[in-house]
Design brief:
Distance between the termini of chain B: 17 Å
Strand content of chain B: 5-15%
Oligomer: heterodimer
Strand order of the largest sheet of chain B: 3-2-4
Structural class of chain B: mainly alpha
Order of helices and strands of chain A: EEEEEEEEHEEEHEHHHEH
Distance between the termini of chain A: 15 Å
Radius of gyration of chain A: 16 Å
Number of domains of chain B: 3
Strand order of the largest sheet of chain A: 1-8-3-4-6-7
Shape of chain B: elongated
Shape of chain A: globular
Largest interface: A-B, 41 and 52 residues
Number of helices of chain B: 14
Chain lengths: ~210, ~300
C-alpha cells in the first residue's frame, strides 16, 4: 500500500493526507481527503479532520499522501456513512491526545461525547470499516515532551510551566506519566506503506517523521 | 474505541487582547486611547468608557473567573470581548455560563452571531441546576423553531446544538417537542439530530413517565423507521446515518419491537447500516444494559 511525499498527484476521497512543520520531516497533522482532487503542497485542500475542532469538511496544507489500495466499494460507502453519522456530532467531539480516540457516555445525561486527536479520527474512520491501521495505545512507542512539542507545535510551542502542564493534562498527557505511548500522525502514514494483511502496523519512534 | 463514564470540558486556547480605554470627561473629543491589561479594564469600568478592543493573544489564560464574568455582564464592553470571555468561560466549564445563556437567549433582539455563540455555549457546558435546565430547554426551543425554518445552511450547527442540549436536559414527558423537528419538510440532518436527542432521552429513562406522550412518539418513530429501513432509501451515506439513528431511537422508545427491527436491519445485508445502528445504540446510557447490549452484539457479529 502506498504512501508518498508529494510532488503533484491526483488524490481520491478518503486518501490520508499529512502536513509537516516548516523545515522538518515530522508530520504534525493528518486528515482524509474530502473529495477527489489534484494535490500539491502549494494549495490547501478540503479534508475531514480533527483540526481541532472536528471539521467535516475543513482545509489543510498537504505534504504527504497515503492510501489503501483495493478498497472495496462497500468499504468506501461505509466510510461515507460514518462521516455522515459524525457530521451532526462535530460539536460533541473534543480534542484529545491519549487515548487518541475515545467515546464517553455521560453517566447522568446519557449523552455521548467523542474525543479524538487528528490521528485518532483517521484511525477511527478506518476502524469503522474493519481496518485497524495501527496497534493499540499500549503497544505504541513512548515519546518524550520534546518530540511532542515538535509534533503539536501549534498547540504546545508557546506554552511553558504550569500552563503547559495544565494543557498537557487536559489532552491526556500528564507530565508525571511521561514519556507517553501516543498515536501521532506519522504512524498513520507509515501504516499505509504496509501490506493490508500486515495491519495493524507496529509503529517505531522514528515514524514520527515521514 | 475506549469508553469511559465521565465528561471532560473542552479547552480554549488563543485569542488575546488589549483593552483601550477612553480616559477623561466622556466627551468623544477628549477621548484618549490607553492600552491597559484586562484587569484594569474591569476595575476601571465604572469610571471610564471602554470603547474598543484590539486583538492581542492570550489574555483569557491570565484572566480570573471573576474578571471574565464581569466582562460578560458588562454593558460597556464590545460584543467581541463578550464573545472571547464567553469562550474562555466555556473552556473552563464555568457554572455561570448556563444561567447567563438562559437569560441572554430570552432577549428578543440580538445579533445572529451572538445568538449562535450562546447556543453553542449551552451545548458545550454542563448545567447542574434543575431550574436553570428548564429555563434552557424553554429558551433553546424557541430559538430552535426559528432556526428550523431558516433556509440559510449556517443555521444548522446552532440548531443541532440547541436540539442536542434539549435532549440532554428535557424530561421524557417533554420529548414530544422533538417531533416538531421530524416533519417531512425538515432537513435530513435536522431529523437526524432530533432522533439523536430522542435516543438520549429514551436512553436515559428506562420507564415511560407519561404514557400518552410516549405513545405519540412511538407511533411517529415506527412510521419513520419503516420508511428508512428500506434498500431503496439506503442509497446515500446521509440516509444510512439517518436510518441508524431512527433504528436506535425506536428500539429505545419501544423495546418490544427491538427484535423485529434488528431482524429487519440484518435482512438488509448492509454491513455499514448494522455497524452504525450498533454504534447509535451503544452511544446511549441504556446501550450497555439488556436487551440493548445483546442487540449491539448481534449487529456487530
Amino acid at each position: 500500500m502506498p504512501a508518498l511525499v508529494l510532488g503533484a498527484r491526483q488524490g481520491s476521497r478518503f486518501d490520508v493526507v499529512g502536513s509537516r512543520a516548516d523545515l522538518s520531516s515530522d508530520l504534525t497533522h493528518v486528515g482524509m481527503l474530502w473529495a477527489s482532487t489534484s494535490l500539491s503542497s502549494a494549495v490547501k485542500v478540503r479534508v475531514a479532520h480533527m483540526g481541532p475542532p472536528l471539521q467535516l469538511p475543513g482545509e489543510m496544507q498537504v505534504h504527504v499522501v497515503g492510501w489503501l489500495e483495493g478498497l472495496e466499494r462497500d468499504e468506501l460507502e461505509a466510510l461515507e456513512d460514518w462521516i455522515e453519522y459524525m457530521e451532526t456530532r462535530t460539536k460533541a467531539c473534543v480534542y484529545f491526545c491519549r487515548p487518541a480516540r475515545q467515546r464517553q457516555v455521560d453517566a447522568e445525561s446519557g449523552e455521548v461525547t467523542y474525543k479524538f486527536s487528528c490521528a485518532g479520527l483517521v484511525e477511527q474512520a478506518y476502524d469503522h470499516v474493519g481496518i485497524r491501521l495501527v496497534v493499540g495505545d499500549a503497544d505504541l512507542p513512548r515519546l518524550d515532551l520534546e518530540t511532542l512539542k515538535r509534533v503539536w507545535s501549534a498547540l504546545l510551542s508557546r506554552l511553558t510551566g504550569p500552563q503547559l502542564e495544565r494543557i498537557l493534562a487536559k489532552f491526556g498527557l500528564p507530565l508525571a506519566e511521561a514519556p507517553w505511548p501516543v498515536l501521532v500522525p506519522g504512524y498513520i502514514l507509515h501504516s499505509l506503506t504496509q501490506r493490508r494483511g500486515d495491519l495493524p502496523y507496529q509503529s517505531a519512534a522514528s515514524d514520527v517523521a515521514f | 474505541m475506549t469508553e469511559t463514564a465521565s465528561t471532560t470540558p473542552g479547552l480554549v486556547i488563543g485569542g488575546v487582547l488589549l483593552v483601550a480605554l477612553v480616559a477623561g470627561s466622556g466627551n468623544a473629543a477628549d477621548a484618549r486611547p490607553i492600552a491597559v491589561p484586562v484587569q484594569s479594564a474591569v476595575t476601571c469600568e465604572s469610571d471610564s468608557a471602554i470603547v474598543s478592543i484590539v486583538a492581542s493573544p492570550g489574555w483569557e489564560l491570565e484572566a480570573s473567573p471573576e474578571q471574565l464574568r464581569s466582562l460578560l455582564g458588562s454593558r460597556q464592553v464590545s460584543l467581541e470581548v463578550k464573545r472571547c470571555a464567553l469562550r474562555e468561560l466555556v473552556g473552563r466549564d464555568d457554572q455561570v455560563v448556563p444561567s447567563f445563556v438562559a437569560g441572554a437567549l430570552a432577549s428578543r433582539t440580538m445579533q445572529r452571531s451572538w445568538r449562535d455563540d450562546l447556543i453553542h455555549a449551552a451545548d458545550e457546558t454542563r448545567c447542574a441546576d434543575l431550574q436553570t435546565r428548564q429555563e434552557l430547554v424553554t429558551s433553546l426551543l424557541q430559538q430552535a423553531y426559528a432556526l428550523r425554518d431558516d433556509p440559510d445552511p449556517s443555521a444548522d450547527p446552532p440548531l443541532w446544538a440547541a436540539l442536542r442540549t434539549i435532549g440532554r436536559y428535557a424530561q421524557a414527558s417533554e420529548a414530544t417537542v422533538l417531533l416538531q423537528f421530524l416533519r417531512p419538510q425538515d432537513r435530513g440532518k435536522t431529523r437526524q439530530v432530533a432522533l439523536q436527542s430522542l435516543q438520549t432521552i429514551f436512553g436515559r429513562f428506562a420507564d415511560a413517565h407519561d404514557v400518552w406522550h410516549q405513545e405519540v412518539i412511538q407511533r411517529r418513530l415506527e412510521e419513520l423507521v419503516a420508511k428508512y429501513l428500506d434498500s431503496d432509501f439506503l442509497t446515500t451515506g446521509a440516509n444510512t446515518a439517518l436510518a441508524a439513528n431512527a433504528f436506535a431511537a425506536t428500539v429505545l422508545a419501544t423495546p418490544s419491537v427491538a427484535t423485529a427491527l434488528t431482524d429487519r436491519v440484518l435482512e438488509l445485508r448492509n454491513a455499514s447500516l448494522a455497524s452504525l445502528g450498533a454504534l447509535a445504540l451503544a452511544d446511549t446510557k441504556r446501550g450497555k444494559t439488556e436487551p440493548f447490549r445483546s442487540i449491539v452484539a448481534r449487529l456487530r457479529a
